Amino acid sequence: MTIQSMNVQKQMLTISMKAKLSALWVFFLFNIIFRDIHEFVEPGFIEEIMTGTSNGNPITEHMLLLGGVMIEVPIAMVLFSRLLPYGANRWANIIVAALYGVLIASFGTTDLDDVFHLVMESAALSFIIWSAWRWRNPSIKKHSMSQEALSGRQLH
Predict the structure, then answer these.
(1) Alpha-carbon gap, residue 117 to 94, rounded angstroms
(2) Number of domains into which the chain is organized
(3) Which run of H or of E encompasses 83?
(4) Which domain holds residue 77?
(5) DSSP string, 125-147
(6) Is residue 136 part of a domain?
(7) Could you tell me if 105 and 122 are in contact, meaning their C-beta atoms sit under 8 angstroms apart?
C-alpha cells in the first residue's frame, strides 16, 4: 500500500464520518419541523396563536428570537459537521447533541405524535454522540501507516 493510497483512504473515512454526522443533523431537523407542522392540525392551535399566545404564554419578540436561535444551531451543525476540522467537529457534535438531548427531554409531551418525533430526535442525537465519540483522528492513523510504510521500505 502506497502513502498516496493511504491518504485517499484517510480522506474517505473523514468524509464519510462528516457526511454521516451532517445527515443525522438533517434527520434531527426534519423531525423537529414535522413535529411543529403536526401542531398546526391540533384543534385550537391556530386560534391560540392568533390570540398572541402559545401554551398560555404571550408570544414576544424575545420568544421568537429564542426559537430562531434554537433551530439555527442544528441548522449550523449540518454545515459545521462538514466543514470543521476533526477535533472541533467531534467535540462540537458531542456537546451540541448532548445539550439538545437535555433540552428536548426537559420539555416533555403527552401527545402521541410528539412522543414519536421526540423518540426519533433522541435516537438521532444519541447516534450523533455515539458516532462522534467513536470517531478517531484519521491523522494519527496516517502517521502510523506512514511510519510502517517507511519501515517496510528500509527492510527491502
Answers:
(1) 21
(2) 1
(3) helix 61-83
(4) 7-42+73-155
(5) HHHHHHHHHH---HHHHHHHHHH
(6) yes
(7) yes
Q: Can you read off the three cell numbers belonging to residue 57?
A: 404564554
pLDDT in tens, 79-107: 999 999 999 999 999 999 999 999 999 98
Residue 90 covered by a domain: yes
Q: Is residue 79 part of a domain?
A: yes
Using the structure block, give the residue that is written with the C-alpha cell 430526535. 121
Separation of alpha carbons 80 and 92, rounded Å = 8
Residue partners of 144: CB distance under 8 A and separation at least 6: none
Q: How many residues does the chain have?
A: 156
Please write the tens of the pLDDT for every residue from 5-16: 666 666 666 568
Which residue pairs from 122-127 have beta carbons closer than 8 angstroms and sit at least 24 positions apart in sequence? 124/24, 124/25, 124/27, 124/28, 124/31, 125/28, 125/97, 125/98, 125/100, 125/101, 126/97, 126/101, 127/24
**Is 1 part of any domain?**
no
